[in-house]
Amino acid sequence: MGITTEVPKTVQWNGKQVPVYPMQTVDFSQLLSQEPAEIEKLVRCCQTEGFFYINLQGIDGRRMLDDQQETLALMHRFFESPLEVKNEYGLVSPHLGYEPVGSRTGVLENTKDGYEMIKVSRDEIQRDAPHIPRNIKNSGDIKVLENAIAGSNIITKTILSALSTGLGLTGAARFENMHRNHRPSTSTLAMMHYIPSDPVTDKNIGHQKHTDISSLTLLFSEQWGLQIRPPGAKEFGFIAPKVGSAIVNVGDSLRFASGHTMQSCIHRVVPLNPTEHRYSIAYFLRAEDETMFTDSAGRYVTAGQWHDEKFYTFTAPELEQAQAPSYLLLGGMNEEVAVTDVHEKAMDGMKKSEVKVY
């Protein structure tokens, strides 16, 4: 199932009917114009739900949609290369490199993840000789990556600016001042390919539940598979792809920077159609490494420290993950657990590693 203008209220997945959650739409062009009503809607979305569509169909956003299509073409060429070529790149750092299918825990119990991913950081792409895989390293490919990262940075910085204005922040207190372009950060573009998989029979399934480390995540995908768990919801539900729009969600860092007044979105990816290859592009805008904020445990930490602790907790062996502090797992967000959702209750009780970070 791809982009559709008719959004169903439920869809069938893994033997049961699953809700399709509605989302508000915020208009990018109106944010650029600092329209008060649109800024008010944006603030409300971030404080009550933590996610929304961003409409890019106006003249100011269309170029970003074109960048998405060029990036998708580059991704197909990279992911269709032999595994040995992709593995040459390897995982250089948590925000730069290639990860093959099965590198992490999967979305269901006793499974591994069902996707491969290549990440190119904003800091890296600006270098004179960026470290890029050789099969996508010609000047045209680098330009595609530069455009995708620059365009995504503009969209997310525009959102940050509007949030600062909507909250009455001034001077150094504005969110943009902890996301300055010339300061080191782990902001990165992640390009993901999900392999066909059947939840009943396969052992590489989807992308496990998590909140993002980032301040804001900008997600492009033309295919179904993303599920969210809104605050107060007792189960995961799908989000429909929307024509001319991307999906934005609040991450841990912006939640912390807002004094915990914003919601960090709990989400995961599952194979709605077990026969299809799914592709998605996510830009993670992250705070400068030295930014200080109070995390979900009340600790005063840097953005870099939060990134490293959450990332390496997830990549640790399963026993260590089970013993990790609970505040790291979902960024301090609470889950409402349905009485009938036995598997989720068991996983929460055991503090098993279902949290995925980038």
Question: In a few lines, what is going on in this structure?
Answer:
This protein has helices spanning 28-32, 36-48, 62-79, 83-89, 122-125, 139-166, 252-257, 303-315, 318-322, 326-329, 342-350; strands spanning 10-13, 16-19, 25-27, 51-55, 91-93, 96-99, 115-121, 188-194, 207-210, 216-220, 226-229, 237-238, 245-250, 266-269, 278-285, 292-294, 300-302. The protein is of the alpha+beta class. The strands form four sheets. A nine-stranded mixed sheet has the order 3-4-13-10-15-8-7-6-5. It has a four-stranded antiparallel sheet with strand order 9-14-11-12, with no helix packed on it.
Write the layout of secondary structure elements.
Layout: E1 10-13, E2 16-19, E3 25-27, H1 28-32, H2 36-48, E4 51-55, H3 62-79, H4 83-89, E5 91-93, E6 96-99, E7 115-121, H5 122-125, H6 139-166, E8 188-194, E9 207-210, E10 216-220, E11 226-229, E12 237-238, E13 245-250, H7 252-257, E14 266-269, E15 278-285, E16 292-294, E17 300-302, H8 303-315, H9 318-322, H10 326-329, H11 342-350
Parallel strand pairs: 3-4
Antiparallel strand pairs: 1-2, 4-13, 5-6, 6-7, 7-8, 8-15, 9-14, 10-13, 10-15, 11-12, 11-14, 16-17
Helix pairs in contact: 2-6, 3-6
Describe the structure.
This protein has 358 residues and is α+β, with helices and mostly antiparallel strands. Helix content is 31%, strand content 21%. It is built from 11 helices and 17 strands. It has helices spanning 28-32, 36-48, 62-79, 83-89, 122-125, 139-166, 252-257, 303-315, 318-322, 326-329, 342-350, and strands at residues 10-13, 16-19, 25-27, 51-55, 91-93, 96-99, 115-121, 188-194, 207-210, 216-220, 226-229, 237-238, 245-250, 266-269, 278-285, 292-294, 300-302. The strands form 4 sheets. It has a 9-stranded mixed β-sheet with strand order 3-4-13-10-15-8-7-6-5. Strands 9-14-11-12 form a 4-stranded antiparallel β-sheet, with no helix packed on it. A hairpin with a 5-residue loop joins strand 16 and strand 17 (300-302). Helix 2 (36-48) packs across helix 6 (139-166) and helix 3 crosses helix 6 (139-166). The longest helix is centred in the middle third of the chain and has 28 residues, at 139-166. Mean pLDDT is 89; it is low at 339-358.
